[in-house]
Amino acid sequence: MTESPRHHWTVKQVVELFALPFNDLMFQAQTVHRANFDPNQVQVSTLMSIKTGACAEDCKYCPQSGHYHTDVERQRLLEVEKVLQEAAQAKDKGASRFCMGAAWSNPKERDMPYLVQMVEGVKEMGLETCMTLGKLTVEQAEVLGQAGLDYYNHNLDTSPEYYGEIITTRTYQDRLDTLSHVRSAGMKVCAGGIVGMGESRQDRAGLLVQLANLPMQPESVPINMLVKVKGTPLDQVDDLDPFEFIRSIAVARILMPASYVRLSAGREKMNDQMQALAFLAGANSIFYGDKLLTTPNPETSDDHRLFNTLGIKVEQREEASDEAHEQVLMSAVVESQQDKMFYEAN
Ligand code: SF4
Q1: Contact 257, 212 (CB under 8 A)
Q2: Measuring CA to CA, which of 88, 93, 165, 259 is 20 to 30 A from 174?
Q3: Is the CB of 59 under 6 A from ligand 1?
Q4: Helices (H), the chain
Q5: Ligand 1 atom with minimal separation from the 67 CA
Q6: What Enzyme Commission number does this protein have (predicted)?
Q7: Quick check: CB of 157 below 6 Å from ligand 1?
Q8: Higher pLDDT, 220 or 332
Q9: How far apart are the first and last CA of the chain?
Q10: Residue range 205-210: average pLDDT?
Q11: Which residues of 279-309 are buried (b: 16+ CB within 10 A; e: fewer)?
């Protein structure tokens, strides 16, 4: 790492960054990226929904909110064994981090022992662990931290100014408090937001300023493109210009030079060229798997094919063997090419 991140960005400065000519912005982002990371490496995680639907919160983008009628099938907290089986499969497919998501306002005390067993079991496989469970108390954060949870995901979603348009059941300050409890418990923070929810550029800048100016910048910053789901209040919102999405990634990279910027939800709708631009803008993390909680995600074999085309390597955890991983990557590429041949033969 060559420079310490700034923690006093203003919205005005960040709006100016957004407004740079596209090539200048990309050059700046790529320069910052290269000073801090291997530009041809991407970290991959797998995300599993461990409890689905019927959430008490009213996040207007979310098909899992109990406030809206969507096609999401409700599912209680899964058994520990089932979660560990999925984690083992994710590891076989090359993921280095396993993220477990529950559609809750907050975990209940009765759930905590199961969550602890999940964290301990996934850690034993040599995977990094991440959870997203909603609001946490100081005590719950400590219990999860002691169990060995590496990352906690809790997004700020949007700017403080636009927030009230999107969620009314939880405050912005609630979110900041949870992030602070996670930090105090010694865990790493994964926090980002969603663009394309009808917010302005000023709001996108406002979100990134909030994240960049946290006392310690998040280690992981997911930038999601809204996935419009029928039945949610945002299912008819106007599409965001794809270049504005790429600009958001680039600005996140410049503001948070040492963070992993994750190309997250919405990737299924992005073609190869757009994903390549996102990597060029400084995204260096993705989710593998055909589903992101409840919304579609590209097939793992498509990701491997794209990585192969772009010369991108999957980031390894230290204890993972390069050779074993390379084998997984190559077999997936071959599988994907065979799929294509079969498709073309039809
Ligand atoms: S808290 Fe999470 S699961 Fe619940 S409605 Fe909001 S985004 Fe969806």
Answers
A1: no
A2: 259
A3: yes
A4: 11-18, 22-36, 80-92, 112-124, 138-147, 160-166, 172-184, 201-212, 242-255, 272-280, 300-310, 322-345
A5: 5
A6: 2.8.1.6
A7: no
A8: 220
A9: 50
A10: 98
A11: bbbbbbbbbbbeebbbbebbbbbbbbbbbbe
Q: Are strands 151-153 and 188-190 parallel, antiparallel or unpaired?
A: parallel
Active site residue 6: no
Show me where the domains of the chain are located.
11-345
CA–centroid distance, 80 to ligand 1, in Å, is: 22
Catalytic residue, candidates 130, 175, 247, 253: 130
Best residue among 47, 59, 175 to mutate for probing ligand 1's pocket (most ligand atoms within 8 Å of CB) is: 59
Q: What pLDDT, on a 0 to 100 scale, did the predictor assign at position 345?
A: 30
Mean pLDDT of 178-200: 96
Q: pLDDT, tens digit, for every residue of 220-242? A: 999 999 999 989 999 999 999 99
- For this structure, is 55 an active site residue? yes
**Is 226 close to ligand 1, i.e. is its CB under 6 Å away?**
no
Q: Which CATH class is domain 11-345?
A: alpha beta
**Is residue 76 annotated as part of the catalytic site, yes or no?**
no
- Residue 218's pLDDT band (cuts 50, 70, 90): very high
Ranked by mean pLDDT, which of 90-94, 136-140, 260-264 comes out on top? 136-140
Q: How far is the CA of 27 from the centre of ligand 1 (A)?
A: 36
pTM of the model: 0.85
Instruction: Judge whether 34 counts as a catalytic residue.
Output: no
Q: Tell me the best of 58, 62, 67, 292 to mutate to test the pocket of ligand 1, counting ligand atoms within 8 Å of each CB and taking the most.
A: 62
